[in-house]
Every structure is written in C-alpha cells, then in structure tokens.
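User: Please predict the structure of the protein below. I'd like the answer in structure-token form so I can feed it into my own downstream comparison script.

Assistant: Understood. Taking the following sequence of 85 residues as input:
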Amino acid sequence: MKKANVTAQHNGVKITFSGAVEKQNVVDMIERCQTGKCDCMSDESKEKIKDMNISGEDGNVELSIEGDLDIEEIKTAVSKSPLIK
C-alpha cells in the first residue's frame, strides 16, 4: 500500500512516502513540479516553494519542501498526486 505522511517543519513541510513508492517516481514528480508540468499543486503554492530535497530509498522516501507553505495545501496536493493512487 502506498502512503504519504505530511508533517510541518520550521522552514516548510516534510512528506514521507512509504509502501510501494519508488524514489525515482518522487524525483520525476519533483522535476515536473519544477518545470510547471504538474497539476496536483496550485500555482500559488508552487510560487511559495524555495527548495526541495529528496532522501531515502524505495519504500521509504522523504521529500522536504522549504517555503512559506501551509500543511493543508500540501496535504491536498499529495492527495491529488498519482504517486499514492
């Protein structure tokens, strides 16, 4: 089962993907976001992002997003993401 847990950080949010989520799929998602090709997040949310960092391995991937982000807007974006569907 694919899962994503969103938690607040002092400088943004952290998303922990577990289960059948592959690290390369998260990398691909980030590349689409950075080039404006993703539609799971609003343009307003994308503009708030200062940096994104990926760590971990298949089945346990962490994505840290720096910026003035509201945890609820990120939870909404994650729920629309094909990574967890």
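That's the full token string. The longest strand covers residues 49-57.
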